[in-house]
Fold this protein.
Amino acid sequence: MLDAILKRAYLEGLTTQELINIADHFDIDIPPDLDWNFIIEALLDIKLEDDVQPLLDIPLSGAVPLPERYNISFINVLIRDPMWVFTFWEIKLQDKERIENSSDFDGYFLKVLPLDDPKSAWIVSVESDDTAWYVSIPVPGGVFNVMLCALFGDREDILAISREFAMPKLFEPRKARLFAEENPLLRLSGIEDFPIIRGRERMA
């Protein structure tokens, strides 16, 4: 029983390709569309003889590299510090070609939307080849999302919307420099260089 548990724990830590490599070692034919769980069950059914090479000694292929593209449209946000978020995105290839071949296409941009005050949203222009950007959030606290948009003349199309995220509220904006003197994280964020900008000015 303990041996079976150890085998399962070991197999469940492997990638699909590594499981297939082990199956090949034991001459088990694995259909190309077989689910990861079923491959594990097939391997657990192997009756090892004493003279068969132990499972843990089978050479594996190593880490499987992540694909450069997933060919889906999405945008995600990671909070870096109290003043900055890291955004990364992708546009589905077919949609990207259609958008950029449009005669009135005028570029991409990110729209940062404070959910408690949508009228104070601001935009950040990005290039067609960009896939990531650091975005400043000079408003402490609050809940936001970031939208990836394409501009067509006076019309904007939303291509993807990030999950909602809440920025930490560690200080009052007008006391930023005072707090920065005592908090190394705030100094690293560059808060002392942030002017207080009104929503109307952001959109200009």
User: Anything to note?
Assistant: The longest strand covers residues 105-114. DSSP finds seven helices and eight strands in the chain.
